[in-house]
Design a protein that fits this description.
The protein has one domain: 3-Layer(aba) Sandwich (Rossmann fold), CATH 3.40.50.720. Helix content is 37%, strand content 20%. It is built from 5 helices and 7 strands, in the order βαβααββαβαββ. Bound molecules: nicotinamide-adenine-dinucleotide.
């Protein structure tokens, strides 16, 4: 069962996916190695949750609860315990390969998903351990508004 979600990358997609997961009831950790990106996350989320309340999509209480269920994580090792990892880091193959090599060790029991737009999911997962738990989940922008998510299997992904 998925309860704890880790998002890697706090940019446009990472912040949006974090909001979506939080307002869907998950506990969310967001990691970004860039201090400025991590520092900007709370204000970005606050603005977006406030807007959801103004539009009547969430109650004030729902927005508050969701906002407080997201934590910003500077050290990638602190993502331990996640049930699902969604990577939304820059679209660079080597960077994503490095990340999944690390993430597969830090989160040995998690599903490992990339939000890549154009790279091969199988290539991205080349150095990950436990390839049966790797997949693509391609959200569209903005994730909170777009109903479509592509789920991508590699030849290794378990049913
Ligand atoms: N923007 C879109 O419309 C869109 C839609 C679907 C999928 N995508 C995909 O989502 C991914 C992220 O795109 P984005 O638009 O959110 O990019 P972005 O540039 O807004 O955010 C990327 C974030 O990753 C962080 N980052 C840099 N190095 C990192 C590392 N080593 N580990 C973790 N985080 C790191 C950056 O600091 C930044 O905050 C890409 O793979 C992109 O192809 C983007």
């Amino acid at each position: 069962m998925i309860q704890r979600v880790a998002i890697v990358g706090a940019g446009t997609m990472g912040a949006g996916i974090a909001q979506l997961c939080a307002q869907s009831g998950f506990s969310v950790k967001v990691h970004d190695p860039m201090p400025a990106a991590l520092a900007a996350l709370p204000a970005k989320l606050k603005k977006s949750f406030d807007s959801a309340v103004l539009k009547g999509k969430l109650s004030t209480q729902q927005a508050e609860r969701a906002y407080h269920s997201v934590s910003a994580i500077a050290d990638i090792s602190d993502l331990t315990g996640a049930d699902l990892v969604i990577e939304a880091a820059p679209e660079l193959l080597a960077l994503k390969q490095d990340l999944f090599e690390k993430l597969s060790a830090i989160c040995p029991d998690a599903l490992l998903a990339t939000n890549t737009s154009s790279l091969s999911v199988k290539d991205i997962m080349a150095r990950a351990s436990g390839k049966e738990r790797t997949l693509g989940v391609h959200f569209f922008n903005p994730p909170v508004a777009m109903k479509l998510v592509e789920v991508i299997r590699t030849g290794d992904t378990a049913p």
